[in-house]
Amino acid sequence: MANKAQPPYLHLAELTASQFLDIWKHFDADGNGYIEGKELENFFKELENARRGAGMDSPNASFSEKMKEFMAKFDKNADGKIEMSELAQILPTEENFLLCFREFVGSSTEFMAAWRRYDTDRSGYIEANELKGFLSDLLKKANRHYNDQKLQEYTQTILKMFDLNGDGKLGLSEMARLLPVQENFLLKFQGVKLNAEQFNQIFTYYDKDGNGYIDEQELDALLKDLYEKNQKKEMDIQNLTTYRKSIMSLSDGGKLYRKELEIVLCREPLL
């Protein structure tokens, strides 16, 4: 527990991927995927101390004013919490592989297409060996130089960040946490997550012609109903188009079969 007493690495000019992870774990004390409430206050205090030590502090503003300004700058979805992708904007991470990911996968549509490409066995997960290939391709596309040791470090760091049950693989919603908040449409459906019975009922209901797959029109109707039931408000056309395009990136020539749709809507891929 000794390493918990001192906030790690905030004084450094540049962080490695594993140091970034240590900071995240230190301040996300309850492990819920956010730095919020007292955690957020503690993080900001320690960040201010580190900045003061580096001569970067603005002494005239009050703590509350500085924290308000800080949150306005970095809390992109204004939910009063800091997510991992937002923290990546705050801290100077060496060859920032989180921002590198976002350069390579700049939208939810690109993310879903990349997922389909690397989830080669269509299991609904990216296993460690698939993740390594994914990150290798990412670094090449972003023109980042790396060696096998660095690639292994990035792979292990991402697994440590998101593989909460330690089974060596990542689900779609876990990997999507690397997306910019405003692009992560999966966050909009966090409250939906269906079990097997619910999913089967919904799929059967919206597969109007009973051909075994969902087409774009059927998906529009499904998403609109799910969103409005979950969010208690109507979905606008622009969001509907974005969500549909993202999810259809998983499809086979415009045909969204059960396996692809369950990856998005279910808590765990169904057996």
UniProtKB/TrEMBL annotation:
It comes from Lepisosteus oculatus (Spotted gar). Belongs to the calbindin family. Residues 15-50, 62-97, 106-141, 150-185, 194-229 form the EF-hand domain. The keyword NADP does not apply. It holds the Pfam family EF-hand_7. SUPFAM superfamilies: EF-hand. Keywords: Calcium, Cell projection, Metal-binding, Repeat, Synapse. This is Calretinin. Calcium-binding protein involved in calcium homeostasis and signal transduction. It plays a critical role in buffering intracellular calcium levels and modulating calcium-dependent signaling pathways. Predominantly expressed in specific neuronal populations, influences synaptic plasticity and neuronal excitability, contributing to learning and memory. During embryonic development, it facilitates neuronal differentiation and maturation. It is found in: Cell projection, Dendrite; Synapse. Its main location: other. GO terms for cellular component: cytosol; dendrite; nucleus; synapse; terminal bouton. InterPro entries: CALB2, Calbindin_Ca-bind, EF-hand-dom_pair, EF_Hand_1_Ca_BS, EF_hand_dom. GO terms for molecular function: calcium ion binding. The keyword Oxidoreductase does not apply.
